Here is the input.
Amino acid sequence: MNEDVATLPLWLLSPLAVIGAGLLLSQVIGVVLQARGLPKLYGAVIAGLLLGVSGAGMVDAALLAQFQELFNAASALVLFEVGRKMDLAWLWRSGRQGGALVLGCVLRGMGAWALLAAFGLGWGEAAFIAAILIAVNPVVFTSMVSDSNASGVATYAAANTVGISNLLALLALSLSLAWMRSHNINAEFGFGRELLRQGSQLALGVAIALLCYGLYALAARISKAQAGLRPGILLAALMMDLGLCSVTSASALLSLLLMGLLLRNAETRDNVFQAQVKTAQDIGYALLFMMSAALVQVQQLFQWLPMLAALLVFALRIGLTRLALMPSAAWSGNKKNAIALSLCSLVSFGSLVVDNSMSGASYMSEGAAAVMAALLALNVLAGPGLTWWGLKLADETHEGDEHG
Here is the structure.
């Protein structure tokens, strides 16, 4: 046995080395694609497909499970950035514009629910998947915005919607999970008790965010940290937040988004902070999306019924988002089309709950799981491109500018 091991390349024996090699490959391919005017995130897609379950099989669910804390840390940076881009004061003042963005989130969920039920899924399963489909994928959107250096009214509105959609999806998911668990044959509690448990996880996530942000503010004040030193203090606070949420089964998504919201209202040197953490965030984008692509089973694209459902759901989400924007006169027709396209991407269950504190995906039937797998496969292949196209359509990209 030792002789067999000795004949293997040493880097194949290290799961961390495999992840590192995949990340390196994704960065190299991404730079080549970006030089040709294509989204850099597709480097992570290609690397994931080559090394994942549809390719060499070197990166699979078992290997990725060993680095769940690493992926959770990357997710923490992404979700924090999403929260930092949410402008609650603007959403409140904007009136009809903010209402249109919220309406788009609601319509995406309701439309997906009806369509999935029409394809034969049970109402509970359809509601579970539809709750997930409310959310826009923060990795795809923030990565595309970062790569293209996009800024403007459409990008601003879409960035706010990413945070809103994830919050609404989390609330809807809590309801649907409580329903599914209480109606399971092995259910221990009724719907009311399950709903209370979900609500307590949300409340605990808020409490942890307030605690960790308070510690960050206190540490920065005591140390009189300059803007250039604050990212290190903040990263420590984010890791504390994520760790506490993990061990207490609190809502990490809500907690990390709230951390971003709190910083937005208190940190006055935003540009300095952003410059300090941009590299870590870019690596996080590539790492998370490479993980998603590695788990994509290409054969899901050739199962015609789940794939048809996925295509219709994808198109319906874009169409309903565009429909919700119609009453608002704040954006031109072209900007509205751009916003709808840039919000097309979707998330997985694991991404939405970050640390998997909600165990619920196992409740799906084989048919529902096939539809969700087809949706995620389609999202990996088409989501970044459509989001990138939407930002281009808005005419708000500034590639090549050092400062946007």
User: Anything to note?
Assistant: The chain has a mean pLDDT of 80. The chain has one domain: 67-286+304-394.
